[in-house]
Amino acid sequence: MEQIGVTPPTTLDDAWRWDEFLEIAAEVKKVTGRYAFGFGWSGTQTAYRWLPIVYQNGGAFLGEDGQTPSMDSEEAIEALEFGRRWYADELVSPGNMNKSEGGDVSRNMFLTGQIGMMLNNPEPITQLDEEMPDQWGTTYMIRNTDEASDLGGNALAVTKSSKHPELAAELVAFITSREKMIDFCHHGNWLPARSSLDAEDIEYAANTDTMQQFIDQGARIPLNLVKAESGQYFSSLNTVFADYADLCFLGELSPTDASAQMMDAMRSVTAE
User: Do the beta carbons of residue 44 and residue 208 sit within 8 Å?
Assistant: First the structure.
């Protein structure tokens, strides 16, 4: 950032918009001599991490009912075109794809100086502290017409077939209590699901300000994205999205064709 003369945003309201981000990425690529940035996929089942890009453009993966595929909207196709530019302009390595093997490729490329930025969650922080002390920083998630961030974490549920639903619900309430969530987040460097908790409450061992940035960013996760990613079909739909997104980003399918074929496959899943 210093070499290209850019000061990263320090507030959510000043987060980079898509065009601005790509302009900065082009300058970063000149400095690294390789690529500009990476995306924090960490396995073949993490295609959903890219969905916030769709919502940042006013699109949606599923409709308001959380079940109807909607990746054929103009906004969703534009989002796919945006992702295609990452690879067509060689800003992101073709080895940094949803189906790349070897874990978090973007983290490894960042640590070795092959990229200067990455869109990622807090998981790399400990390793960055160890291997690049005082040589990294964070800013807020990119945005476009709208804002959206990745939904991740751990989920607890009581099934309708539970033999002891009251006891199960009591256990969930205990595990997600304020006291237990503070303990969980403090020791694991995780973000709290409770909106009443901030970084000072949790007393992270390090990087309190950075963790607060992530907590603040979490407030910009759209509820319709939460609904889509927690629906009954989502595991299968996530696999469909992974297949066609990769083909689009690598140039095997145009964004329009990828959208059409993805929609056909998604409808087959939800029809079941």
Answer: no
209: left (phi over 0), alpha (psi -120 to 50) or beta: alpha
pLDDT tens string 163-206:
999 999 999 999 999 999 999 999 888 999 999 999 999 999 89
Token duo for residue 253: 């399918």
Match domain 12-148+232-271 to its CATH number in 3.90.1150.200, 1.10.275.10, 3.40.1490.10, 3.40.190.10: 3.40.190.10
Predicted local confidence at residue 102, as pLDDT: 60
The per-residue pLDDT for range 20-38, each reduced to its tens digit, is 999 999 999 999 999 999 9
Cβ-count burial 249-272 (b if 16+ within 10 Å, e if not): beeebebeebbbbbbebbeebeee
What gap in Å lies between CA 224 and CA 103, rounded to an integer?
A: 28
Q: Distance between CA 73 and CA 237 in Å, rounded? A: 17
Joined together, the tokens standing for residue 173 give 């309430």
